Amino acid sequence: MNTTTASTETTTTPITAEWRDFYALTKPGVMKLVVFTGLCGLLAAPGSIHPILGLTAILCIALGSGGAAALNQWYEADVDAAMKRTSKRPLPAGRMERDSALHFGLGLSGLSVFLMGVGVNWVAAAILAFCIFFYAVIYTMWLKPSTPQNIVIGGAAGAFPPMIGWAAVTGDITLMPILLFTLIFIWTPPHFWALALFVKSDYANAGIPMMPVVAGRESTRKQILAYSVVLAAIAIAPTLLGLADWIYGVPATALSLMFVWLAYRVYRNTATEPSEMKPEKRLFAFSIVYLFVLFGAVVADRYLVGWII
C-alpha cells in the first residue's frame, strides 16, 4: 500500500487591492474641501485663466491632495489600526500592501507637481510641492506624533490650496490669498479639536498627543473658544480691508458670530462622555459648512457685486 504524504507549503498570497481601496487612500472626504477651496482661490483671483489650464490646476490640486493622503496612511498604518475611527481603512484592514500605498502616494504627488509646473506655472507648482511635503513629512512624521500643537502648526497643510489656485491664475501671492490661507489655518484647530473631544479615547489608545489627551478637555474647550474669536476677526478682515464687498462680508459676519456662539457652547459644556457632547458635534459639523459657505461667498463677491449694485 502506497502512502502519499502531502507536503504543506506555506505560501503568502499577494494582496490584490481594488480600485476602491486606492480611492480610499486619497481621503476623498478631505479632498472635496481641498479642491473646493483651491477652486475658489482660482476663481477669486484677478485676471483670467484658460478653462483647460484652470481644470489642469484643479486636477493637480486633487492629485497632490490624494498623494499626500496616501503617504499619510502609508506612514500611519499602525496608528490607524489602533483607532476605531480609522481601523477599516485599506492598510489596517489588510486590503492593501504598504508598499502599494507608498508607491501610489509618491506617484500621485510627483505627477501633480510636474503637471502643475509644465501645464500651469512653477509658482503654483512650488507651493503645491511644499504643501505635499508639509502634510506628509512635517505634519505626519514629525508634528502629529510629538506635540499637542500638531493641528495648530499642521493646519498650514490644508490652508495652501486657495493660495495654489490664486497663483495658478496670477503667478504671484498677494494679501487676499494670504488672508484665505490664514482663515483655514486658524479654522483648523477648533474644527479638529471639536472632533478630538468626542474621540479622545481613540487618540489616547493610538498614542497621539492631541490636545484633549495631553491638556485635558477643559483646556481644549477654552482654546477652541479663543481660536474661534480670532477666526471671526480673520473672516471679516477682507471686507474691513476693502478686499471684498458686502456679498462676502454679510455671510462672513453672520456665520462667524454663529461659529463663536457654538464654540462658547462647547466651552460651557463639561461632559466627559461622547454621548453627552452634542455641542462639540454641532461645532464640528457646522465648521465644515462654515468653510464651504465662506469660500463660496468669496467667489460670489468677485463676480456678483457689480451686477447687483
Automatic annotation (TrEMBL):
A Gene Ontology annotation in the biological process aspect, one of them, is:
heme O biosynthetic process
Cite the EC number. Answer: 2.5.1.141
**GO CC aspect terms:** plasma membrane
Cross-referenced InterPro entries = Protohaem_IX_farnesylTrfase (IPR006369), UbiA_prenyltransferase (IPR000537), UbiA_sf (IPR044878)
Q: Which residues cross the membrane?
A: 30-49, 55-75, 96-116, 122-143, 150-169, 175-199, 224-240, 246-264, 284-305
Catalytic activity, reaction form: heme b + (2E,6E)-farnesyl diphosphate + H2O = Fe(II)-heme o + diphosphate
Keywords of this protein's UniProt record, alphabetized? Cell membrane, Heme biosynthesis, Membrane, Transferase, Transmembrane, Transmembrane helix
Please name the top-level EC class of this enzyme.
transferase
Which pathway? Porphyrin-containing compound metabolism; heme O biosynthesis; heme O from protoheme: step 1/1
- Annotated GO MF terms: protoheme IX farnesyltransferase activity
Q: Which residues form the signal peptide?
A: none
Top-level taxon in the UniProt lineage? Bacteria
Membrane protein topology class: Multi-pass membrane protein
Q: Where in the cell is it found?
A: Cell membrane
Q: Which family does it belong to?
A: Belongs to the UbiA prenyltransferase family. Protoheme IX farnesyltransferase subfamily.
**Role, per record:** Converts heme B (protoheme IX) to heme O by substitution of the vinyl group on carbon 2 of heme B porphyrin ring with a hydroxyethyl farnesyl side group.
User: Which PANTHER family does its entry note?
Assistant: 4-HYDROXYBENZOATE SOLANESYLTRANSFERASE, PROTOHEME IX FARNESYLTRANSFERASE, MITOCHONDRIAL
Q: What else is known?
A: Carbon 2 of the heme B porphyrin ring is defined according to the Fischer nomenclature.
**Name of the featured protein:** Protoheme IX farnesyltransferase
Q: Which organism is it from?
A: Alterisphingorhabdus coralli
Instruction: List the taxonomic lineage.
Output: Bacteria, Pseudomonadati, Pseudomonadota, Alphaproteobacteria, Sphingomonadales
